Structure formats: C-alpha cells, structure tokens
C-alpha cells in the first residue's frame, strides 16, 4: 500500500503531459489523470484494505511448501516450460470470486469489449452480474465485478474505456455482498 | 520329507510359482524347500537396496536371470530427499557381474546409476536383454550408447522419467546394423534430437519392436514416416504434437496411424493441438491405455477424443478434463480400471479449471471396474468420499490429493475423517492409500481398524497427536510402507511401536516432532533397523530434545550402510555419543 503513494507521484507527472489519442490506445505506460477522476469514491476504509490484504497474503504461503502438491519434478518441469511458452502471448490476469474455492486465469486479449468479458465471467463462475449503469454501477445482483489497476486501486469493471481497462487491469475480483455495495452505488 | 518329494519334483512344482510373495512363503517352510526354491528363482525383487547385501543375493539365487531394485524412498520424487543421500546401483552391478554373468534383465527404480555402471553391464552380461530405468539419475547418453553397442541381444531399453546428462542424439547410432532384436525402446525423457535417418533405419530393421516412446524433440512432421516403418507397434509414445502440418501431411499421418492395427497404448502427445485430435480417431476404439497428462488440451476436445475410447482401461489426464469431461469418461469408458488426474497448474492458486469432487464421483458411478485412482483436486467433501466408497468397493489403490493443506469438507467445514472412514470400511481390498485434507486422529483410528490389507500409506498435513501414529502402527497388520510429512506427532508412538517397524519395509517421516533422542533410543533398541536422521544442515551439537528434519527407518539384514553422506546420521557413525548419553542417564 505504501507503493501506491510512490506511484501517485509518477502518475501525476505523466498526467501533465500533453498527448493525442485516448489513453490505453498507445503505450501501456500511459496513465492519464482523467482516468483517475473517473474512479468512483472507493470506501477506502480499513475493511477494504484488509480484504485486499487478505487476497495478497493468502496466496504466497501456499506456493512455497516444498514438494507440495506432490507432483514429480519431471512432470512439473514439463508443465512449467509449456506455461512459459504460452504466456508469452496474451494478457493473462487472475480472476477470483468471493466464496469460490479456486482462482481462474483469463486472457484479456481474447475479448473485444465488456459484454463479451462479462458473459465469459458469468459462465465461468455461474453467476449473474445484473445491468451496468454509468453512474450507479451494477444493479440487480449481489455480485460486482471489480479489478485492480496499476495504481493498486480497486475499480469497477466498465468505468473506463475498454482499451484502457485492458492495459491497466492487473487482476479481477468478483465481489459479493456488502463490500460490493460500497463500489456499486453511485458516486 | 526329502524321500517323498525328490528335488526334481519339488523343483518342477516350484517352477509354477511366479509371484515372489509365494516363493518367499514357500522358502520358509523348511530347509529343503528353502534350498529348492532358491535354486529355482529366476526373477529377484529387492524392494530396498539397503535391506540386504548384493553379495548375499547373488549367492542365494544361482539361477537369477532378472534383478529388480528400488533405491530412494518414494518421497524423493517430491524433492524431500536431499541429493547425495544414496541408492547407488554400482555395488549391485559389480556383485552380479562377478557372480551372475548370465543375468539378462536389470530393472532399477530411484537409483543412482553412473556411466560406469552401464559400461559394466554392457561388458559383463553376454546375454543381456533388458534394461529398464525408472526415475534414475547419474548417467549420460554415453552410458546408453555403451549398452546399445555392446549388448547384442538387447531387447528392451527403457528410460522412464530419468534425469540424464544428455550429450546429444548420437547414442542412437550405436545400435549395431546387425541387431534386430529390439522390442521396446523408450527415450522419452531425453532432451536432444536424434537423427531421423538413424531412427528410421533402426525401426526398419526391428521387426520385433512392439513399444516405441519418442522424446519431445521428435517433431510431428516425421512421425508418419517413422510409423510406416513400424506398423506392428502395440505401444506408441509420440513426440511433440504441435508443429504445423499441411493438409497432405495431415492426411499421411492419419493414414499411418490407422495402419497401426495392434496399437493398444498411446502416450507422449506433448503440446497436442486441438486441430490434430481427429488424426487420432482411428486408433481410439482399440486403445486400452491413454496418457494425456502432457497434453494441455481443453475439456471439449478431450471429450471428443475420449468418447471414442470405449475399450480404455487406463487413463492419465490433466485436470483440464474438468467434471464434465469425467462424466463423459463415466459414460463411454466402461472398461476403465485406472484413472489419474494431474494438476495443470504447478502452484495451488493457478488452479483455473472446474474440476471438483463431482468428477471422481461420476467416474466411480459409471466405471464398475475402476480399482486404482490418483486424483488431485483443490477441495473435497465427506459426502463425495462416502458416495465413491459406496459405488466402488473394489478399490485397490486410492490416492486423493486435496491440494489445499488442512482443507476441511468445504460444505460442512468438518474434517474429512468420515469420508476416509467410508473408503477404508467399504474397500476391503485396499492396498494403497494416500490421504489429505483436514484429518484428525479419528481418521487414523478408522484406518487402523479397517484397512487390514493396506500395504502403503501416504500422509501429509494431518492428525493431532501421537495417537495418529499409534493407531496406524498397531492397527494396519499388513503395512509395509508408511510415509508421513508435516504431522504433529512425536516420540511416544514411535518408540511404543518399535517392534512393528521390523515387519515393514520402511517408514519415512519429515517435518514431524520426533526428537533426536528418540532416534538414538530407537537405534539402540532395534539393531535390525537402520535409523537414518537426514538433516540437510546438521547442527554441530544436537541436544536430545531437538526435533529432526527427516527420519528414514528401514529393516535390514545388511547392517549399517557404508555410503552415507555427511548429512545422514546413524548411530553407527558415533555410537559412543549415543552410549555415553544413555549411561549418564
């Protein structure tokens, strides 16, 4: 979370640069201030930080147990080389849903626009996301799709132009319940 | 006794005994039966290379034609045994070379095999026919070349998942032009390319070749040409299945595969592309064994393939098959006896497929002959285990790996005790079991009470106390191999059940709470056990209360081994330390 502050400074410098074209249509390194102002007022409560913190710290210990899961190194190595080759192309981001026992990975370059992405997520996790309203967020469902952008902020999926979303999305999280309300409701 | 059954008659009767367990029983009846049996045993199996000395084995079985040896403990497969621990083939090869020159077959598993060993084999056994190395390491392709060039009657050369110092594909050229005896060749674990022309020539002059397993470097565009030279193949392991082929090449490959009328087993299929699946259609109806565990193919394509494999008995696949794919297997593969489902993501949080407990439930319902399972899954439920047990009481091998350590039943949040209870209660013939998920001592009480035929048990992240170990060691009568990691028991159960350890082949424990003092006590108490403390970073001074990283205990009549590395402690290394401490007390 401290890193976010450092990034903010860099981002603001870039923000004063004059550029042509929509953000996200060029270099990934582009980060424009108008993107920031579109962010909904996140309830930057401790609860929120805590929950993202949980997602952060939950993963590492699992991956570090020696010899676990019990898969022969021969097999692990075969799969690993395959993965490294595959991940050269595409923009893979992890997707988690509150309450689901496993994470998934999707390639954002496989989708052209938000509706396609939402449909895919709905199929993957067997849920419905309701209807998206520009000012009010998602209505008609307990589930709210959010994503973490390069600043480390959690944004509502759909708030920014698609290209900008693809270039700035680090991971997706389908929130459920009361946390979702904070994001889902209008500014 | 001797008058009623002259040696020749006994010998003739014993010649019908194939199974070594029977032979072992027979040899314990009386001295003359022991003598007759040992003079007639041709296939010798040694489950732990340190349990007996090579010299003794060589002397005991003068008619030995085949020797099978196992070295490192099973958990070495998962990097839990440090390099250099042991399991050297050399003393065995040396002893056999000197005393049993008529040896024809050597099969080694988890052993360190050097080029010197392979050269010795090539030079010493004039009728040598069969070399099968599984999960071995320490040799290079030079050693393979020595065997290929010198063993004129070589029939089988199989390198299964070995770690080989691959110096290039030249080894293949060392098979003499005149040799036509090859029946089985497996070089799937080698990295480097072999020359196509060398391989083609070898296949052309090997009419007896029934099993061929290529390595990944053999590209798809040459496969048709190879298969045309070996239409009699029963087992095929392809190379990489992903290169771009033009329509003519695809058609040639399809034809070449369809010509393999005897083909029963298919493996390899690295990087299998969905568009090439139709190429395999012609072989599917005859297949009894299919290994798709290196093919990162998605569920719809897997269904396409598997729905045509009605004779399938053995299926290895990745979790990409998902529950839906396993449902298809349940419907279409009614002959299935063995199923293994491997994780496609090496780390836990990369599990991005819908494979749940339901997949295994479906297969257990639909496949009545299913008796062996290895299943990796993120979480599980007791209800599923109970269903599975009810459906399939004929399980002989049940290995469930719930990948999340300490994961309870995700619906009820209860431990998986009741689920595994159902398994051991119903599956009376269970020989091998791996448990996982959240388990209390109760689970092990159930296992101790019910799993009377259990031979091998693997446990990780389970149990509450010493009771767990006590239940197992006092309950499972036929237990031969027990391997445990990261469980919270200590010294008491181990010391109380010390006598049991002499009836077992081995016990492995790592990251538990066994103290150094207990290891010393056990060593003192049980001279016919080798108690090895394996600490990768051995401390200078070891107080008795300090927990040890790993212990490997095995029965032996060979006494202490002479080849222990620095990080392996046995009481024989510094007996005076053990003795003096005890006398102070």
Automatic annotation (TrEMBL), chain A:
<comment type="subunit">
    <text>Homodimers and heterodimers.</text>
</comment>
<comment type="similarity">
    <text>Belongs to the Aux/IAA family.</text>
</comment>
<dbReference type="InterPro" id="IPR053793">
    <property type="entry name" value="PB1-like"/>
</dbReference>
<feature type="domain" description="PB1">
    <location>
        <begin position="90"/>
        <end position="177"/>
    </location>
</feature>
<keyword id="KW-0678">Repressor</keyword>
<dbReference type="GO" id="GO:0006355">
    <property type="term" value="P:regulation of DNA-templated transcription"/>
</dbReference>
<dbReference type="GO" id="GO:0005634">
    <property type="term" value="C:nucleus"/>
</dbReference>
<keyword id="KW-0927">Auxin signaling pathway</keyword>
<dbReference type="GO" id="GO:0009734">
    <property type="term" value="P:auxin-activated signaling pathway"/>
</dbReference>
<dbReference type="InterPro" id="IPR003311">
    <property type="entry name" value="AUX_IAA"/>
</dbReference>
<feature type="compositionally biased region" description="Basic and acidic residues">
    <location>
        <begin position="41"/>
        <end position="53"/>
    </location>
</feature>
<keyword id="KW-0804">Transcription</keyword>
<protein>
    <recommendedName>
        <fullName>Auxin-responsive protein</fullName>
    </recommendedName>
</protein>
<keyword id="KW-0805">Transcription regulation</keyword>
<comment type="function">
    <text>Aux/IAA proteins are short-lived transcriptional factors that function as repressors of early auxin response genes at low auxin concentrations.</text>
</comment>
<dbReference type="Pfam" id="PF02309">
    <property type="entry name" value="AUX_IAA"/>
</dbReference>
<feature type="region of interest" description="Disordered">
    <location>
        <begin position="22"/>
        <end position="64"/>
    </location>
</feature>
<keyword id="KW-0539">Nucleus</keyword>
<dbReference type="InterPro" id="IPR033389">
    <property type="entry name" value="AUX/IAA_dom"/>
</dbReference>
Automatic annotation (TrEMBL), chain B:
<dbReference type="InterPro" id="IPR041101">
    <property type="entry name" value="Transp_inhibit"/>
</dbReference>
<dbReference type="GO" id="GO:0010011">
    <property type="term" value="F:auxin binding"/>
</dbReference>
<dbReference type="GO" id="GO:0010152">
    <property type="term" value="P:pollen maturation"/>
</dbReference>
<keyword id="KW-0539">Nucleus</keyword>
<dbReference type="Pfam" id="PF18511">
    <property type="entry name" value="F-box_5"/>
</dbReference>
<dbReference type="GO" id="GO:0019005">
    <property type="term" value="C:SCF ubiquitin ligase complex"/>
</dbReference>
<dbReference type="InterPro" id="IPR001810">
    <property type="entry name" value="F-box_dom"/>
</dbReference>
<comment type="pathway">
    <text>Protein modification; protein ubiquitination.</text>
</comment>
<dbReference type="InterPro" id="IPR036047">
    <property type="entry name" value="F-box-like_dom_sf"/>
</dbReference>
<dbReference type="GO" id="GO:0009734">
    <property type="term" value="P:auxin-activated signaling pathway"/>
</dbReference>
<dbReference type="InterPro" id="IPR032675">
    <property type="entry name" value="LRR_dom_sf"/>
</dbReference>
<keyword id="KW-0833">Ubl conjugation pathway</keyword>
<feature type="domain" description="F-box">
    <location>
        <begin position="5"/>
        <end position="46"/>
    </location>
</feature>
<dbReference type="Pfam" id="PF18791">
    <property type="entry name" value="Transp_inhibit"/>
</dbReference>
<dbReference type="GO" id="GO:0005634">
    <property type="term" value="C:nucleus"/>
</dbReference>
<keyword id="KW-0217">Developmental protein</keyword>
<dbReference type="GO" id="GO:0031146">
    <property type="term" value="P:SCF-dependent proteasomal ubiquitin-dependent protein catabolic process"/>
</dbReference>
<protein>
    <recommendedName>
        <fullName>F-box domain-containing protein</fullName>
    </recommendedName>
</protein>
<dbReference type="InterPro" id="IPR041567">
    <property type="entry name" value="COI1_F-box"/>
</dbReference>
<keyword id="KW-0927">Auxin signaling pathway</keyword>
<dbReference type="InterPro" id="IPR006553">
    <property type="entry name" value="Leu-rich_rpt_Cys-con_subtyp"/>
</dbReference>
